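Same chain as my last thread, 260 residues:
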Amino acid sequence: GFGEGDLIHGSTEPYAVDDVRIIAEGRDFFRASLAFLLVFSNSVQASCVILLHGLARTHSAMEPLENALKEEGFLPINEGYPSREYPIEQLAEIAIRPALEKCPKGEKVNFVTHSLGGILVRQYLSRHDIANLNRVVMLGPPNQGSEVVDELRDVPGFHFINGDAGMQLGTDELSIPSTLGKANFDVGIIAGTSSINWILSSLIPGTDDGKVSIESTKLDGMNDHIEMPVTHPFMMKNDRVIAQVVNYLKNGSFEHGDSP
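reply #2:
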């Protein structure tokens, strides 16, 4: 072998073998360091995602989204709120303020909402600034109000089932959504085009998801909008919808090639 191997490395193995070992160890160290940096940078940039369920639902409705977001390296905050007990103005504070406190300081803040949850974000942002607000994804939001509420508001039991907030989701002068103005934040919206409730769909003009029309989901100032063949009650559990949510949070746009 190479005689200087013994002298330099204190080893009986040839210099060339030791040299290869040193290179290999260096490579392994580099790989380990790179992996650490990737994990560390991912944790540093792990955006906080506040999940807000819809009317008369609970946090469990958003658990499939919560789990998917965790797997993608996000930090989801999935707290329920008493959607039937207060009007929208109060619900926005009750649902969002504590959730924001659970986001690490300095972290980017995102929202993923279903139905009424989107209106709560609009209501909150009409009164407060969120310094690190990044992106918002709304699923089936009644941004222009819901014709279903107009038609059924006076039906006995409607208020009992849907509470004050439900009464505020119409399209008339009592409507909260219509008073909140355009989006001055980065928002992408997913609208469903399938319905399992033909009775409610008969009350809604145009294509709808069984509760909200495609047109009503739209919002002046929105960044992106996509229609998907999903129903209002179950869209937040749909794998393709969840994939679109993740895509928007990461890239600021939906994958339109995946739309029907």
